[in-house]
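INFO batch 0412 | record 1 of 1 | parsing
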Amino acid sequence: MTKTGQRSERYKTGAATRRAVLGDKHVSQSDKGKTEFDAPFQDLITEGAWGQVWSRPHWSKRERSMVTIALLAALGHHEECAMHVRATKNTGASREDICEAMLHVAIYAGVPAANSAIKIIKKIFEEEDTAES
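INFO prediction complete | emitting tokens
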């Protein structure tokens, strides 16, 4: 936030990108849970992750989505990985894209990391398929 209490352009861009990727419902729920304690962190990721990185023009949201899912899976950040798998409905990354990303995780980060993520991803796919039925 600026000294005048206004949000920076990078924050505004980041907030819009975050909503485009994660969806209004997710972001609204997340915003409701924000406290004075984590507000600076939320500002940081809105400006840095969403306003600086996700908003860059060279890669598409689909490409960023695949890389993000692979990195989160490789690092064992399962909740964040699951959130980004759910967001693929907004980024255009397909199930085939996610499968390819998991193959890369298996080779470059290890089979256990990929195996753990794949279990989570399969559960999300099952939930989505059930909801569509």
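INFO post-check: Residues 111-132 form the longest helix (22 residues).
INFO record closed
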